[in-house]
């Protein structure tokens, strides 16, 4: 489970922990607060502890997934210590950092592409798309041995470009979806399932810090909800029939019958983005 110090990654780890899984959680913040975003709480050790408290086994491994050597070392450790990898969830994403610290990247988030700093592109493709690709490369042999599940976390921004969405954001999410399909094609002979998975509006630490009224949270999700979606997919004996697809957590809730932590079942945002 990559990018699991906080936010959606933490929530996915907890969802897998509920299901009794051994979860290796990776990210840059091992303890305390992030050096990159010190105003956001969350650490790998805390996530791992919560996974264990929920009935799984959480193992915290510090890793900057923009460093290929660190990524390879994590996968090698999993092979040595655990001997198998049933599910890989690629969640690393640096694209929102400028919004959280509100530097030039945040100020130019909705500007025309020629006015945006190139670092917005670099954040999304280095800390998002490339990190997903390299982690998948390293983990593929283990997934093949287990006939496992590969999940890339994406978003509805990939479905169409809106006036208010930057081109790097649109292209990074589109690339994540297309990568899931391309990897599904390569992994199909080996029985490995590869999908892209969309959350809805998630009540992450960053979203909850936003000014009051900035987001309509009436149809929002806890981070753990998408974790329950991943757990449902991992436990589905027929999941291979979904390989190459783009899936929506809320729609999986309807299909598999799981709810959010508050007992509610969020609605899919598909109609709002694709209508």
TrEMBL record:
Against SUPFAM superfamilies, the record matches this protein to: NAD(P)-binding Rossmann-fold domains
An example of a Pfam family matching this protein is: adh_short
Checking InterPro entries in the record gives: NAD(P)-bd_dom_sf, SDR_fam
Q: Which residues form a coiled coil?
A: none
PANTHER family, alphabetically? DEHYDROGENASE/REDUCTASE SDR FAMILY MEMBER 1, DEHYDROGENASE_REDUCTASE SDR FAMILY MEMBER 1
**Listed name of the protein:** Oxidoreductase
Annotated organism of origin: Deinococcus malanensis
């Amino acid at each position: 489970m990559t990018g699991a110090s906080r936010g959606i990654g933490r929530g996915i780890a907890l969802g897998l922990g509920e299901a009794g899984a051994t979860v290796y959680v990776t990210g840059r913040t091992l303890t305390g607060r992030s050096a990159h975003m010190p105003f956001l709480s969350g650490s790998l050790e805390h996530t791992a502890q919560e996974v264990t408290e929920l009935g799984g086994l959480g193992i915290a491994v510090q890793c900057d997934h923009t460093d290929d050597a660190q990524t390879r070392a994590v996968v090698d450790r999993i092979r040595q210590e655990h001997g198998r990898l049933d599910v890989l969830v690629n969640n690393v994403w640096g694209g929102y950092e400028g919004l959280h610290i509100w530097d030039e990247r945040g100020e130019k988030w909705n500007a025309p592409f020629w006015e945006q700093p190139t670092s917005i592109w670099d954040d999304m493709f280095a800390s998002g798309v490339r990190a997903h690709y390299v982690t998948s490369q390293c983990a593929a042999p283990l997934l093949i041995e287990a006939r496992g599940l590969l999940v890339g976390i994406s978003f509805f921004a990939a479905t169409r470009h809106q006036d208010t969405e930057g081109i790097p954001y649109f292209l990074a999410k589109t690339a994540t979806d297309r990568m899931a399909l391309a990897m599904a094609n390569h992994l199909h002979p080996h029985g490995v399932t590869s999908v892209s998975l969309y959350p809805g509006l998630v009540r992450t630490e960053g979203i909850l810090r936003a000014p009051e009224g900035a987001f309509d949270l009436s149809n929002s999700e806890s981070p753990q909800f998408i974790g329950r979606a991943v757990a449902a997919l991992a436990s589905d004996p027929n999941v291979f029939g979904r390989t190459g697809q783009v899936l929506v957590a809320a729609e999986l809730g309807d299909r598999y019958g799981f709810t959010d932590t508050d007992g509610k079942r969020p609605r899919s945002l598909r109609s709002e983005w694709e209508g």
